[in-house]
Amino acid sequence: MEKLHPIMFAGTGSDVGKSITAAAFCRIFKQDGYQPAPFKVQNMALNSFATPEGLEIGRAQAVQAEAAGVPCHTDMNPLLLKPQSDHTSQVVLDGRPIGNRNAYEYFCKEGRDELRREVCAAYDRLAARYNPVVLEGAGSISEINPVVGVVPYYRDTYIEEEDSVALATKSVRVEKGKVNIAVILLPGSKSTLDDLYELRRNGVAAAIIRAHREGATVMGICGGYQMMGQEVLDPEHVEGDIERLPGLGLLPISTRMSGEKVTRQVKFGLCNPHSPSSTLHSPLMQGYEIHMGVTTPVEGAPDSPLNLLENGSTDGYYVDSTCMGTYIHGILDNPEFIDFLLVPFADKLSENAGAFDYHTFKEEQYDRLAEHVRRHVNLPLIYQILTKNHD
């Protein structure tokens, strides 16, 4: 294929469509026979993803790589900032955390040259392997001319968000004086102890415990899994000033924070909860881990892992079908696990509810997004720009 210039999508703020437009063009170039790859020099987001090499990048670039049909790699997002407070972020360089920096430290000249060299090298490696590179800018610069298209807002295409700034809500009828919650999912957190403190302070922790007693299923993922235990310890101040907090007490586990981060993609199956030993009784599923901290059963608690990994190690804790936790992100993308999670509600599910293939669904959504953008931009002009005066 003809070598194309790189293309960059910039904007004037966050959540203005840069990520989704870059994803659309990754799919368009793939459909047209090219081998594109996404690139963003620096991303600030808590929602990250594990590469096949067990390293960490922003989730937006992972989604764009999926749209491009290529494996995600740290060269696509060499610099990731994960906020820990209003003034401090964990700095992840080439997929590995290199420490926490406040804004002043980060923007000082000292150390910036090294970061610049690393991100430029990442881009050069990417540009040598892919054609074209689809760059996403920051929420700053914007070039208003020339206009090559006006893409209308869409409502019927579903692409994973970079962060939880967008919340789709649905009104449902509730019984008088009662919220009808069947499943409570406690998600991950970059600041587990601070968030656990807030849940206890504002009464949400007590409400979760009460809902579970009344029959709701509670499942924790990553930081949420840690919160469901008996206690969370941070004697080395990995996260902050809080050294210990009691958890929700729903799982007989204890978590101790550590400076070493676990980042890896995993294949796993469900452990048989009725067997004294861990045995796979379901097809292998896929997910990824990104966490700091080590979780173990408390003294006297039986070993009861939720998952058995392909390498023979175990993950999570299983009390019963209404109380469990795991470190595996993406676990809910697996239809086999959804079926397992909804077993207690089998009598309430529609008889017509069939298996949902999330991977196929995502591929369909990328194609719909690409088609939507194709209809509203001058694609021949864009290709003309990308091939003009190319040596």
UniProtKB/TrEMBL annotation:
Keyword Zinc: no
GO MF annotation list: catalytic activity
Keyword Nucleotide-binding: no
Record pathway: Cofactor biosynthesis; adenosylcobalamin biosynthesis
PROSITE patterns: GATASE_COBBQ (PS51274)
Pfam family, any one: GATase_3
GO biological process: cobalamin biosynthetic process
Annotated ranges, domain CobB/CobQ-like glutamine amidotransferase: 171-336
Swiss-Prot/TrEMBL keywords: Cobalamin biosynthesis, Glutamine amidotransferase
Name by which UniProt lists this protein: CobB/CobQ-like glutamine amidotransferase domain-containing protein
Lineage, top ranks: Bacteria, Pseudomonadati, Bacteroidota, Bacteroidia, Bacteroidales
